[in-house]
Amino acid sequence: MCIRDRNIIVSVHYYDPFFFTHQGADWVGPEVHTLGVVWPGPPPKRVEPTAAAWNSDWSRRFFEKYNDIQGSENPASPETMEKDFKMLAEWSKKNNRPINIGEFGAYGKADMESRKRWTTAVVKNAVANGFSFHYWEFCSGFGVYDDKTGLWNGLERILTEA
Question: What's the pTM value of the predicted model, to 2 decimals?
């Protein structure tokens, strides 16, 4: 990278695995509409993908691995996330650029306990690698606060106690 301006920071979005973080979101393709995807994988009970997910090569491959593979080869494993962050940290060091996880979050159709586990893992990996981070978003589909009830959902503690 030959940009000389030392004030430039690299900002990335992190939403992996997408089938977990965006499950049921109506603005993404129908192959992501399968509900019940928990984090981490594999799930205690097999998740049957929707027909649209099964008929798409990339989503079928995800669900085959997600449902059946233990450990680091599971696309929804903590080890997979750690590898992603390690690769980003190596790039940051090589290019002498700080990293900001400018957007990350899990849509509200995922179960809250999985959202908390996933968010904790993202924050842990960001902090361990010296990355700053910003959660997406405050009080809508991915939110940490319910503006109708005035209640926090617990994600705010994960984000502020890092």
Answer: 0.95
